[in-house]
Amino acid sequence: MFLITRAMLVQGMSHYIYVAYRQTFAILAIAPFFFFFFERKSFCALLKLKHVCQIFLLAFLGIAVGENMYYAGLLYTSTTFAATNLNLIPAITFVMAYMLRMERVDLRSRRGQAKVVGTVACVAGAMTMTLLKGPQLNWLRSNENHAQPELVLGVFRLSTQWILGAAMLFTTVAAGCAYVLYQARIADEYPSQLSLSTLVLFLGCIQTLIIAFTLERPSAWKLSWDLQLFTCVYSGVVCSALGLFIQMWCVKERGPVFVTAFNPLSTVLVTIFEPLLFHVPLYLGSLVGMVLVIGGLYGITWGKALDQKVISFGTKIGEDETGGAQIAEPLLDNSEDHTLTIQ
Q: Which family does it belong to (predicted)?
């Protein structure tokens, strides 16, 4: 989606209108499931003023600010720079979650060390893919003449637009971290993630439509039956509707650090598909970065799995020499004879 969206924006589509169309298709996609699995009790609980304000803030941070600033920054900079900035979210989220006591990190345990090292490896791998090149790998090269990548993705130069785009991307990072952390903070108050996702998308759709109608002229709303329509529908249905529901479920079950740790995976996919679709050269630095990201994700998931064992046993968990979890205190005290006498 990085590459396709960048190509569509360079061709002239407004990023404000793109986000508005994306959220419109997202709410149209998730609404049938919402009404089919409608739960009156869980939905009525969301209509309290406190919850409506929380959902409105979630939609504002993640959609109205996050997506609009991101796609504006993508237009004014490049896919590489945009992907690099998004890869800062896992590290910042990890630090903020630890400071807010939303993530437990015991550096004396293997699981705590795995989460820290895994997060650092993910960010380092993503940065390696985007900032370091090294020797060019020749097995994906083709002898055919293809259009230059700059003609498809747009030529970018350091200018006022580039600086403005960088500022917008930094705003996206800040909004993204706040969005995930706030989502984790209030997740336990909502019994149905489907209802919550639907209301976030609905309020986000209203917010983005207001922004687009305010800032764009009516003639810019024309949607072509080509790459524009495909990108709006696919990003709305898959990335926004399905993606938001899965994200909210994962945040509630595993926490914000686990969810944001997968952000660098998008850079891995861009690195894989960019040479195949746009015939951009693949370098050794990208390959090394992919290995670091995959290894980092494994470390984080392994550490979080051990955390889940701690929560499941509900007792003090130690670690053996291999770093696995083991029970340090018995669940039952066998020192006394627990005999049930029936009179």
A: Belongs to the drug/metabolite transporter (DMT) superfamily. Plant drug/metabolite exporter (P-DME) (TC 2.A.7.4) family.
